[in-house]
């Protein structure tokens, strides 16, 4: 399995988890502001990855992967905020946060590799 398939699959699975979290926060916790933020950036990761894979050039690929990395970093922040403000309990937070960390590691590696390939 190619790395781009792994990152596509993992980012989509993560986006689906974020959508479920959003629904839970809206319905059960009546939280409407932070949940919208995590929904926006958490689903944007995979969208940018898909755009990168269909990019017109190496520079386009690199730029879109960089955006995906920034969105993953922002998602990490909102998840931490939701957890620390007691909207997400520890067990659920640990699981989705671990998935976010995995995406951050994969995207960091892809961005580093693509920028070094582009600069060579």
Question: How would you portray this structure in words?
Answer:
The longest helix has 30 residues, at 90-119. The protein contains 4 helices and no strands. The two termini are 26 Å apart. It has helices spanning 3-27, 34-53, 58-84, 90-119. The mean pLDDT is 94.
Notable features of this structure?
120 residues, mainly alpha, 4 helices
Can you describe this structure in just a few lines?
By secondary structure, the protein is mainly alpha-helical. The chain is 85% helix and 0% strand. The two termini are 26 Å apart.
Radius of gyration: 15 Å
Strand content bin = under 5%
Biggest sheet descriptor: none
Give the tally of β-strands: 0
What percent of the residues sit in helical stretches (DSSP H or I)? Answer: over 70%
Q: Helical stretch count?
A: 4
Question: Helices, strands, pairings?
Answer:
Elements: H1 3-27, H2 34-53, H3 58-84, H4 90-119
Helix pairs in contact: 1-2, 1-4, 2-3, 3-4
């Amino acid at each position: 399995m190619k790395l781009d398939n792994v990152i596509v699959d993992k980012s989509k699975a993560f986006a689906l988890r974020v959508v479920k979290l959003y629904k839970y926060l809206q319905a059960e916790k009546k939280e409407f502001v932070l949940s919208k933020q995590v929904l926006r950036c958490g689903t944007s990761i995979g969208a940018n990855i898909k755009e990168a894979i269909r990019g017109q050039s190496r520079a386009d690929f690199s730029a879109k992967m960089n955006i995906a990395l920034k969105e993953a970093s922002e998602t990490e922040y909102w998840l931490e905020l939701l957890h620390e403000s007691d909207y997400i309990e520890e067990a659920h937070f640990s699981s989705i946060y671990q998935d976010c960390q995995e995406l951050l590691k994969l995207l960091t590696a892809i961005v580093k590799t693509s920028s070094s390939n582009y600069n060579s």
